[in-house]
Amino acid sequence: MDFELSEAHKMLAESVYDFMLREIGPIAEQIDREDRLPDWVWKKLGDLGWMGVTVPEEYGGSGMDYLAQCVCLEQMSRICPALSLSCHAHSNLCCDNLYRNGDEEQRQQYLPPLCRGEKLGALALTEPDAGSDAVGIQMRAKRHGKYYLLSGIKTFITNGTVAGAMIVYAKTEPEKGAKGITAFIVEPGYQGTFAARHLDKMGERGSPTGELIFDEYRVPEENILGGLNQGVSVMMSGLDMERVAGTGWTLGMAERALELSLKYAKERVQFGQPIGQFQLIQEKLVDMYVGIESARLLMYKAATMAERAHRGGKGSEINKLAAAALLLAGQVSTQAVLHAVQIHGGYSYMMDYPVNRLLRDVKLGEIGAGTSEIRKIIIARELLRE
Ligand SMILES: Cc1cc2nc3c(=O)[nH]c(=O)nc-3n(C[C@H](O)[C@H](O)[C@H](O)COP(=O)(O)OP(=O)(O)OC[C@H]3O[C@@H](n4cnc5c(N)ncnc54)[C@H](O)[C@@H]3O)c2cc1C
Questions:
Q1: Which positions ≥6 away from 74 have C-beta within 8 Å?
Q2: Range of the domain at 20
């Protein structure tokens, strides 16, 4: 057992953080205010090899492991959680899924431009009436010659308004319920109607979130991902990895909250001494530190186990471990940011203080990739099954 990151992971963490600090740090507030990431960022991240961290090199990726993906998202999130979220949707939800379930032609066609950052990826599962109950989706895909006509609405889709390639789940045989769902690779520009509406969010601003309307949108049959009516297994193949990678994104926000709080606790003087000298403030700092360290260790373990499961090892433990890692990280991060807000007192309420942005950003860590409640349900189910 080794609690240290490898040299390669450490180097990755340092270079991602260094880039984020230099290039994104100065515009992070602007990104939040304008709810827009700069257009140049995707190509730049592609050049740096961070748009397809886990995709094998033969398809244009960096060929690293899931721990590397966690580390990358964690470091991005310390400076700009919105960029980290969009990268998560791109690399994990879209690229990893495409690699895992795609045939050779699909991999060759889609992965290289996605890894270069020429196209942004997304995954569209959630619908207005189907969130946690993912297999309750209503979107239809009707066969029409060599095409499928997609009709329905997807909502809350990260990168959905700007994506060049998207994995979309639809019912091909609704009467079969969960067994009648198929995943499709969808691009803009096909025949039929596709409209994307930008949704205005309280946090994670800059990461584009969209409502997508499809009406008889014509998708070629060769764009079926992972087989007809195999949508649930495509979905399940990625859920653990999604949760593990999401842990890095969530945890980066807690780390930033602790960094800001330590600085402020040393600088802010009340009653003639820095507030960091008061034990009630110290307790909050300690609470943040203990939570972050615990969640990070669980992330390391879950990422390592996810890698093993991905390579064909024992798969069952990863379900509850991945859910546990994200559950803990989500709770710890929300609490850490609440502590940071309290430590910053009234200043935290001012828009130009970064803890304000963190407070709006962090809550998503308990909602996306399965809510905290759903994570608990998964863990309980696995525990009772054993
Ligand atoms: C910013 C943002 C980005 C997102 N990005 C994507 C994306 O890229 N792609 C995508 O497909 N989706 C995306 N989502 C959707 C996200 O995955 C869903 O919001 C999430 O799964 C919860 O679904 P819901 O919002 O419909 O909540 P609901 O499922 O309606 O849940 C409402 C409440 O009920 C609780 N609940 C539900 N079922 C149970 C149960 N069985 N037992 C106990 N409690 C329960 C939930 O925990 C929650 O507290 C995104 C969401 C947001 C906000």
A1: 13, 84, 248, 249, 251, 252, 255, 299
A2: 7-120
